[in-house]
Automatic annotation (TrEMBL), chains A, B:
Enzyme class, first EC level, given as a word: lyase
Name the record gives this protein: 3-dehydroshikimate dehydratase
PANTHER family, sorted: HYDROXYPYRUVATE ISOMERASE (PTHR12110), XYLOSE ISOMERASE-LIKE TIM BARREL DOMAIN-CONTAINING PROTEIN (PTHR12110:SF21)
Pathway(s): Aromatic compound metabolism; 3,4-dihydroxybenzoate biosynthesis
Length: 627, 627
């Protein structure tokens, strides 16, 4: 509802709002109380929209349209909104006559002017006669009225022309309003695309930094307004949605202020609008550790899987029931401190924290907070390392640990060494083939409602780029996955989620999450793990028959993969071999991966096979229990 | 999983299946056990699919493709599948050379023939060189091999050409396979359209009866196979999905057998395939009654709303705690027999049964059962009317009562008259302006997963047609609504559902359902109801200001609507006036509607206003409680 939206928008730090007609019509608040609430919240009402199907109509209809406009001007006076958006017409009664359009818009601007209102004319990408920004600009110039100007909407411009030029030459005094929206490139009806699939800046495929730079180079000094119609955002809580919106806007402003643009006359290349500039992202050196919560039921499953994978229990936290498990560069922290208890007899285990190594943890945290991340209360005990941490929108805690040349407290010092012979061996032994190295990636489940927002969070806060994108028909519905990572490839975070399914992605397997460990020899790793008692997730024979048909691998290699339940993928850069454990507790599993050559993905093509296998294992609880 | 799908398909009455590669690859069942299970279930495996990117490639690749095909033939032998689908190529290595395509397909057919396998070649609508059925047919003829024929898929044909001709002239011996799918008309990339938006026959916009009639006129005698890729169906339980599929196929066969088609040579106009023919639908005369379950908390809310609307409590069921309320032609049955209890202090009330008047209730029930409706156990007490009933997919009970000239027990006889003075007046008094007449429509909430299936059920079982369709941005997300009705307009059932939202359509208002009563004078009806103490759902002032701007109604009419909280819509045929009660119990409300002229909709344009108003009332429980 409107009041909730206004409060959310103000809380996220916006200075003003557009009031959308539908929101007001269904609201029980009077325009006067909306105005008063906005004033209380420190929000200006920058635009009332939309006003449709006005220009280039026969005289009788023009008179009726002016009456309609006067009613909306009445409303705008009550709201205290100074600018109205007029979209280019779709009316079946309109005619293709720029002169008439300009004349009638001029008449409208005259009426508006008398009320102290400005009219911003916008070309809809599907406008009947006017559907390009250049055309709307011609008509505005032709009408030549001080109260008539242009509204530019990045969607309407970029959906028709991904690389527009000349926007920087528009007279700034005539640029009344700027609406920003991103969108994925979709080959579909542009109206449907606009009304259902818009995204916040950075979430789609449009070059918004370039577009915004042109508008600012023109001298535009008005608001940067987000106008995003999206089926998913529409139904989400306005609080988090407003934060996502502001975060994406800050990231966009940073992108514009970082790049050099050649637009505008020499003296106007620097925008007059002050752009947000969060502290630059320090380099990240990889995953420091991943923390899982475990309970009494899941802990033995997880520790025996870690042991079998060659991990050693090397440390015990000095003040909390927390264990450190290590191998190569991989650190896994198991936390029994939560109140989680399994409800289905499998126990609960979840990824609760990602820790990344930063060249400047303090600046990483300052950047995160400038990008609206929620700082987490420090949880330092006496003599423990002071780790800066923020909360991701999905609830995951994100820690910044000193790495490389950065100085700072070592989080490992919070753990007392576990004596050899106690529990498991503290010394995992010398490096050998098949030993696991660093964490390759962490995969987090995301509810569909949160997917785009989480992407924006991790990408902007950690300065990551998209590394992989897949959408596939999994055994129980459509699943989307995206991987973001840093340029060096040392840090990868994969996100996946069911697009439509209520609840988890499969009956009895809700939203699995996993940690993938890198190895240089997946076959040795699998054999060693088997020897130590790991149950590798069984993969169907049909999968290997299909691999044979598709890729015709060396028969011996195929039989080795089949025997060890190793999955396979390739792309134009290289190959990928991987195997998984079964589910440990309700939703966590481990994966071991080997990248050969420059393979860029995460084996998403095999996800349906893995999902079906996990489901198969869960579906037969007798077998799982007796195994 | 594959096994669940096979069992569901067999249970729904199908004779055979296509095995889709992805289902088999992720299955832990060997091909031999799939074959054995199908045999046990009485299913033939009619097609293995798909085999891709085969034809018109350089020699080296052709050899590799033949090897790949042999591996799939191995698999098909194990499955006992006699026909393989080969889609027209998308390979970047392929060349535009029909001769080469035919030659290589001929080589493939030779290999297949040696195994007793047939190759069905299909033009994908987005095939690189071959994307029309005519082109695939040319290539099949050119290859001229007895083991090579055509697969026709209605999606690939009708997505490119909504009214194809000449299909009836194809040599029946070369028609190896027929795949049927419907789809909504969407202006989008055809591959995405095909992979995500296919529907069962009758659920979309394709003229499938015409297409199937052509194929049958050609002399096709093979299976009618449904190949439907749909994001929603993909994630639903295969049991109900298979029933929806079979129901839509039966309805399609009925449509084909009912129509006269001019296709084919004179002697071939009658298809050789035996088509399903459920008993024809008897005429329906309107809603007999609607039954609500109520509990102790909701019952007083509902009875006082009915009283205020002018209904009288006229009957008490002879054996059950069930009340009959009547006015004009509207009958509402309140059932306290359930175990429902409110969980949020508002009480529970739900629509549990729709009863329709049929000119032949027995035949209506036989038709429903022929269309796979689940018969409900009779719940007749001694001397009570024997009503035939079936369950709709949404759980609603559907009763068939004798109407018009039909003879049969009168359901009203199960109710003992309520003496005047006891409870409320048994005699609602003489007709007067504003008195409510028949039930105009009943609106049922549908989960998104079930929407298409429910449409097919009500449309096919009751022989209804689509009357209205709307999709709108409601205050808490996108909502879709569809109304189906009979030709005379006496029976209307509206369905609506949130497209994405988890849970109800709005926080604290889960999936409302309502009964709309018709009146000839909505103003008198509203005044009378107010006088009797009804709280009409308050509509915002902003709504009336917007009505004024949009339609410039007579000021007195506008103020009357505003004063009485009457909503308004118009279309090219007439006008619509309506008002609603607040929510009675958790999710039910009543509506009073007046149609002026030939207005065809249900006021869907006002649904967001109404939803926001219901939410507003629920959101302030203090006010609701004290009111």
């Amino acid at each position: 509802m409107l009041e909730d939206k206004l409060r959310a928008v103000a809380a996220a730090g916006f200075d003003g709002v557009e009031i959308f007609e539908n929101d007001l019509v269904v609201s029980a608040m009077t325009p006067e109380s909306v105005r008063a609430l906005c004033a209380d919240l420190g929000l200006t009402i920058d635009l009332y929209q939309p006003f449709r199907d006005f220009e280039a109509v026969p005289d009788g209809l023009h008179a009726a349209n002016l009456r309609r406009a006067e009613r909306k001007f009445d409303l705008m006076e009550r709201l205290g909104a100074g600018t109205v958006l007029v979209c280019s017409t779709l009316s079946p009664h309109a005619v293709d006559d720029d002169g008439l359009a300009a004349q009638q818009l001029r008449a409208l601007a005259d009426r508006a002017d008398a009320r102290g209102i400005r009219v911003a004319y916008e070309a809809l990408a599907w406008g009947r006669f006017v559907n390009s920004w250049e055309h709307s600009w011609q008509i505005v110039r032709r009408a030549d009225h001080p109260a008539l100007g242009l509204c530019l909407d990045s969607f309407h411009v970029l959906s028709r022309d991904p690389a527009p030029t000349g926007v920087d030459t528009v007279d700034a005094a005539k640029l009344f309003f700027l609406q920003l929206a991103d969108a994925p490139r979709l080959d579909m009806d542009v109206l449907q695309w606009s009304r259902h699939h818009r995204l916040f800046p950075g979430q789609g495929s449009f070059d918004l930094p370039d577009f915004l730079a042109q508008v600012l180079a023109a001298g535009y000094e008005g608001p940067l307004s987000l106008e995003v119609f999206n089926d998913v955002f529409r139904q989400t809580d306005p609080g988090p949605a407003a934060v996502d919106a502001m975060r994406s806007l800050v990231a966009l402003e940073e992108a514009v202020s970082e790049r050099e643009y050649g637009y505008g006359a020499a003296g106007r290349a620097r925008p007059r609008v002050e752009l947000a500039a969060p502290p630059p992202a320090p380099g990240l050196l990889g995953h420091a550790f991943v923390e899982l919560t475990v309970d009494d039921e899941s802990a033995p499953q997880i520790t025996s899987a870690l042991s079998a994978l060659g991990f050693a229990h090397t440390g015990r936290h000095r003040s909390k029931p927390v264990e450190l498990w290590q191998q190569g560069g991989s650190n896994v922290v198991l936390n029994r401190d939560g109140n989680t208890t399994g409800t289905d007899g499998t126990g609960t285990a979840e990824v609760v924290a990602l820790a990344v190594e930063s060249r400047d943890p303090g600046q990483s945290a300052r950047r995160a907070e400038a990008l609206l991340a929620t700082p987490l209360p420090r949880r330092r005990g006496p003599e423990e390392a002071e780790l800066t941490a923020v909360a991701a929108p999905d609830g995951t805690q994100l820690f910044f640990c000193p790495g490389g040349e950065a100085r700072g407290p070592d989080w490992r010092a919070d753990f007392a060494p576990v004596a050899a012979g106690e529990g498991v061996a503290a010394d995992p032994g010398p490096p050998r083939p098949g030993r696991l190295g660093r964490i390759d990636h962490v995969a987090l489940a995301q509810p569909n409602d949160q997917f785009a927002g989480s992407m924006t969070f991790y990408q902007s806060v950690l300065d990551l780029r998209e590394r992989d994108f897949a959408e596939y028909g999994a055994p129980f519905g459509l699943v989307r996955s995206r991987t973001v990572g840093n340029v060096s490839g040392e840090l990868r975070i994969a996100m996946h989620g069911a697009l439509l399914r209520r609840g988890g992605w499969a009956p009895s397997v809700p939203d699995p999450e996993h940690i993938a460990f890198a190895t240089d020899d997946v076959f040795a790793a699998a054999r060693d793990a088997l020897e130590r008692g790991l149950e590798i997730l069984p993969i169907t024979d049909n999968y290997y028959d299909d691999l044979d048909a598709r890729y015709a691998p060396e028969p011996r290699l195929l039989e080795t993969m089949r025997g060890l339940n190793i999955l396979y993928d390739r792309d134009e850069h290289g190959e990928f071999f991987h195997f998984c454990t079964g589910l440990l507790g309700s939703r966590v599993f481990f994966e071991v991966v080997q990248r050969v050559g420059g393979y860029r993905g995460d084996g998403a093509v095999n996800a349906p096979v893995r999902m079906a296998a996990h489901r198969q294992a869960r579906h037969v609880p007798e077998q799982a229990a007796s195994a």
